[in-house]
Design goal:
- The chain has 231 residues and is mainly α.
- Helix 2 crosses helix 9 and helix 6 runs parallel beside helix 10.
Length: 231
Amino acid sequence: MFGILRAYILIALWQARPGLAGYDVAQAVTFCFVTQAFIGPMQLFGGGLAIPQRIRSGDIALDLVRPAPLQLWTLAEDLGRAGYLLLVRGIPPMLVGAALFGIVVPDGPGRWAGLLAGLLLGVVTSFGWRYLVALSACWLADDRGVNVASTVLTTFLSGLVLPLTIFPGWLGDIARVLPWAAMAQAPADLYLGTAPVLDTLAFQAFWAAALLALGALGTRAIRHKVVIQGG
């Protein structure tokens, strides 16, 4: 229902402003259902990681002494979750959108290859951000406030609510270079073919690498904090 309501809003907007942001009506509706399909795999509403609960319970001490690095095996778990949710919560909404409104379908193997790469990098970028949010529970008694702030930022700056290409002036310029844009806007543009593939993938790869690097530093920091606190 959320996707259908969004679709009707975008149809009304694009009928009033044809060609807005370089999309036609069909592309705008497709953008709606493509980003809708990303909600589960990208975990755009936050969460998806058990780290905060394990920090509060103290089980994180066991995780930190395992032979597998905490960040890497958490990433492996999240990739498995994302793949499952893409199948059960991503593709079905797109099929509903296609049946009700009709959507644009990428043509050519190059577009599909770029889309798959962009989807993977989007999931990794989302994980990198959510991992940092999860680690904040090590310093905060209650991480709910951080999660709420993260959800608001991700919802509005990822392109989930509206395409970032219609944000005006400096707000749009800033929104399109922030990490949240790599989660929904970038792979959606790859799907629609409205963005250069190599530049878009490079943008996503940059933020994925940057957030993973910060996550590695955060993991090292909580290891020292847990040891200082005695486990």
